[in-house]
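dude i think i finally got it to work??
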Amino acid sequence: DRHVILSRGVLSGQTVSSLAAAKESARWHLDQPQLDVTASLTEEGFRITFRASAPSDVTWPLLNEEPGLDAVVLPRGEGFYVPLREPRWRDFLLDSGGSTTMEELSLPMWGLRYPGLTIAYIMENPFDNRLLWELRGSALWSRLTHRFQPNQPTREHSILVRFGGDSPVEAALLFRSWYAKHQRFVSYQEKIQALP
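look at this
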């Protein structure tokens, strides 16, 4: 069996209440900020959903250079494959100042590449997200922070974590299959047939 870390602890010292756990899901409430959290395993992968009662920020996931992690896949432009053992690419991540979903990223997702495994983090709400890279000691850390805005009617933020194979474009393929299922995906073939 293979074990990977999907996120490090983010909210230390928080009071958890209303904890309810089932075989493939769990729900709980955090007091500061006021968040209802649901985590579940589905046929699509692992989904974590945050619901806020007021404007606030939530950070998840928080990741270190996890054991065996080879590279990060970022959908910037045509896509970047960022090998984490190469100093110039580490500097690239640190110097980028982070990425907002709707400005610097071509898709609301990013991927992590392990030997034989790709993990795709898909932001189901593509707005008000910032992916940031930072050094803690000599280790490279990443974190995604979502801001719940005052004008956001439902104040809900979900991340779907999907698992796939070894292809360098696997993260994009995982996103594409999710997008085709949940959004109106139009293939090139359909676009060509629709032309006059």
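The longest strand covers residues 139-148.
im so relieved honestly
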